[in-house]
């Protein structure tokens, strides 16, 4: 074990923040750390929008399903998968970009996710905390209009950052032996009963939002019904993932 691993293992979603400001130097350091993440073929296919306007934040909070921490957090960032910069590079070289491929979109979503995880880790190393906001995909077209996001770019998630006002309990992750497989894919569902018991006990013991639920029930409830069916049409409209 070392300090980096301990920092990573201590991650939890923070939704309550103190009034202490995050400085611009801190924000720039966080984004610089994000930029150090691995990137496919050096494309760096992501952009980050720092939203400070309270009216815009209020709209984003509503679009994300009424998540008030979008408005209340000292910093709110929108991480975008960005192939527009690649298109501009083609125009600079007088080359026509052959766009719209699913692989291109996958590369951009991997790039932005790696960068965002770096950003979160960097923020936590500075004593900050945060939470990812996937809810901005509830209405990505409205988010694009609000933030002037062009075609070849799409918002993937938001990120609230600030100094934690509370330290919520940490959700128990899947055991290493469940996710780490040797040589080939191997599924063994024997862990589910014990993991359900662990998650059930965690949910019952939470100091806030205690509930009765198991992991398998939570996941089955999520994937047994349609989710954000508008995304395919939206991505096509943005010129992404159509081939």
From TrEMBL:
Keywords, alphabetical: Flavoprotein, FMN, NADP, Oxidoreductase
CDD domains, sorted: NfsA-like
Keyword NADP: yes
Domain named Nitroreductase: residues: 9-163
Entry keyword annotation includes Ion transport: no
A Pfam family it matches: Nitroreductase
Similarity section: Belongs to the flavin oxidoreductase frp family.
Protein name: NADPH-dependent oxidoreductase
Annotated organism of origin: Psychromonas marina
